[in-house]
Amino acid sequence: MLEVMRKCYNDHNQYSGLIHGIIASSKARTTMSKSATTNNTTKRYDGEGTINQRKDGRWEYRVSLGKVNGKYAYKSFYAATERELKKLIKQYNSDRQKYLCEADKTPFWQHAEHWMRVYKFPNLRGNSIDRLETTYEVHIKPVLGFLPLSQINSDDIQMLINAKAQELSYSYIKKIYEFLNGFFKYAKQRGIITTNPCDAVIVPKEEHVAVKTREIDILTPKEISKLYAFNNKILKNDNHFYKHVPAYLFLLNTGIRCGEAIALEWSDIDFENRICRINKNFTLVKSRDKNWNAGKRQKLVSETKTPAGVREIPLNDRAVEMLEQIQNYNRKRGIETPYVISTDSGAQISERSLFQSLEYALGAAEIHHIGLHGLRHTFASTLLRKGVDIAVVSKLLGHRNVTTTYNTYIHIIEEQKRNAIKAIPSI
Q1: E strand or H helix at 44, and its extent?
Q2: Fewest C-beta atoms under 10 Å: which of 61, 121, 328, 381?
Q3: Do 116 and 82 share a domain, yes or no?
């Protein structure tokens, strides 16, 4: 890369009389800046360097070349007018990109994986790391991975995005674009490339994507009643196979996330004050060595998904009743466990087991299948339909902000608006 910079520097000496390249140390640069430039005309230009008018009337463009021989190197162009200077800058950037393309044949994957390990992974949680890596490995690397980074252009990325629009949801396409845009911004800032090809890429609108975003799936009031009736039936018959139904009804009355429920301990329940304290989350993530290489999946209990996830949820009568049913089940079978939801051995249950058990229970109760997150959606939707303020619902759900809640349940909110209008007498 330094050789490319030096070549750019040497080649542009052809603009003799108008261009004078300068490579200086920070000390020399500061001295020159104070003596030769005016005080109020310096401005950023093209995100790379600065333009200013010198005291002698000439215009100067100053751009960093990075480090050369351990010191930061800079290149300056001079012209009689600002307009002439911008022409030189345009030519310089064009030539610099040409030299980069000729010199740097390093494939995209080497730069991208370095960026992930050094700049992204250290700032992400375990499951976020796994999702980012999956997006890259499955959707990006097979297409762009072995192309020289310097030769990837906007057309390449646009074709990738267009192809993915035929098979993925809008939210996933946005993840692919955000990955690429973040990486190319980094590459430009590092001087590896001169332009971000994502700047010209158009992400298709949601209505033009083949896989439509699924509407939130919730239980109807009738189905909720059927689930309670099914729970009473299994209690009466002491049916061990559907033992987790009280846990599902507890989730239905608190709206907590599946990972929060799995991590929940009896010490987090305050029966006297009828409060459930949420302060941790369960996830299944890949183990990582010091170089972020992935290993086998492992259980991880860590802080909540967001800082707002740490919260206290008031327990209604139904929630307390379900917790007592779980305690009675454990007491009868001699199960000693710190976990509110556990296996018969008292161990922490897995999300997969909890999901499969829910599928069996819903099938037996003749209720349409929804995921564990559907219980949380049912809780939130029920509150909103009953007129509970969205800010209160957001706090109970542990969302980062009310906007997240609004965007998730906008269909419910719009429905409430329509109902409100219908209730207003004609004027």
Answers
A1: strand 43-45
A2: 328
A3: no
Distance CA 118, CA 190 (A): 13
Q: What is the pLDDT of residue 216?
A: 82
The pTM of this model reads: 0.67
The dihedral sign for the CA sequence 156, 160, 165, 170: negative
Give the pLDDT mean for 215-237: 93
Is there a domain that residue 300 lies in?
no
Tell me the average pLDDT across 69-87. 77
Work out whether the CA dihedral 173, 178, 183, 189 comes out positive or negative. positive
C-alpha neighbours within 13 Å on the C-beta side of residue 239: 16
**Chosen domain end from 47, 72, 103:** 103
55 and 114 assigned to the same domain: no
Q: What is the 3-state secondary structure (H, E, C) of 142-196?
A: HHHCCCEHHHCCHHHHHHHHHHHCCCCEHHHHHHHHHHHHHHHHHHHHCCCCCCC
* DSSP E strand boundaries for 255-315: 269-270, 275-278, 281-288, 294-302, 311-314
Task: Tell whether the model's pLDDT for residue 326 goes beyond 70.
Answer: yes
Please check whether residues 189 and 229 belong to one and the same domain.
no
pLDDT (tens digit, 9 = 90+) per residue, 296-308? 776 777 777 778 8
DSSP E strands in 56-155: the ranges are 59-68, 71-79
Residues 28 and 76 occupy one common structural domain:
yes
Distances in Å between the alpha carbon of 385 and those of 161, 315, 341?
38, 19, 29
- For the chain, the domain total comes to 3
Nearest CA to 319 out of 264, 276, 279, 357 is that of 276
The 10s digit of each residue's pLDDT in 8-46 is: 434 433 333 322 332 233 333 334 444 444 445 567 666
